[in-house]
Structure formats: C-alpha cells, structure tokens
Amino acid sequence: MTIEPIPEKTTTPPKRQRVLWSWSRDLLLALAFSALFIVFLYQPVRVEGTSMLPGLQDQERIFINKFVYRLEPIERGDIVVFHYPFDPSKSYIKRVIGVSGDRVRIVEGQVYVNGRPLKEAYVPGEYFDYRSLAEMTVPSNSYFVLGDHRSLSNDSRDFGPVAENYIYGKAVFVYWPMEKLGILR
Fold first, then answer.
1. Which sequence positions are flagged as catalytic?
2. How far does CA 56 lie from the centroid of its chain?
3. Which terminus of the chain has fewer Cβ atoms in its 10 Å neighbourhood, N or C?
4. The overall pTM is greater than 0.85
C-alpha cells in the first residue's frame, strides 16, 4: 500500500486580479515618470502676447526644457523663457541675439553683432522696427534678447541684457494647437 501525499492548494490569484494589478502598476509608474519628467525636465507653458510672432502665437502651448542649460550653453538664436528683470514674478519669452562679450548695436532696425549684420529670416518685414540702439557690450553671464515681432516687443532694447540666473528654460516644442505640433526651430 502506497500513500500519496495530498497536493497543497496553490494560492495563485485569479487572472483578472493579476491583470488589474499589472495595469495599476504600469499606470502608477507612468504617472510617476510623467511627474518627474515635467518637474525636472520639461514644463508646459502658455505664450501670452504677440512679441514672438510669427513663430509663436498668443495663447499657444509649448514645452520648455528646464534642464538643457545645465548640459550646454545658451546660444544665439535660442528662444528662452526668463523672469522679467523688473518684476521676477512675470515671465517673458524672447530670442537670444547676443551672448556674454558680444557687441550689439541696432541701426534703424538692422541688428549688428560684433560688427556684422545679423540675418534674421524669422523677422518678416511687417514686424520690423526702425529703432536704433547705441553699441553695447553684453556683460558677462548675461544675454541680449529680442522679440521676433520687433515693433511690439518689450525686450533688451528696453530693459537691458538679461542675467543668466533669470533664464530658466529653452522653448523646444509646440503642443497646442495641434496643427502647429512640432519642434521649435
């Protein structure tokens, strides 16, 4: 006579419970990753105003990269978001025209950087402004910024160069409206 052991009951959860746990876990991980992504790398912002026309429209939604300038320097042509020097509770978005040490002057609307005329295809004729500005040297750790809609922009011509510590992001991606979805250039 042989005795066979009684098989132990396995306590594997039903398939539905495993699937529910799997989906919940994946959702929590995705939410955590998204929160970290937005808090540390990218921030959604809304463009307010028309100073960056035609490239950026009033009320467009964009992502700014808050981390990029820890890895690479701010360069001419970058579209940056910064705290307004006269009221740091406000944020402005402009294009970098001059970096530290550059000599910038404007003669009847034509921008010169280090004695050379700047070619600005992003400023259409109807947004051109004929103001002049005496030559100035951009101080160290500062940037000379201008709006693309020159005739309607409050920028470095009005408030001077922006200190590097006021710049907190680079505009990189338009996500609303959907027809403009894409990378900013």
1. 51, 94
2. 12
3. N
4. no
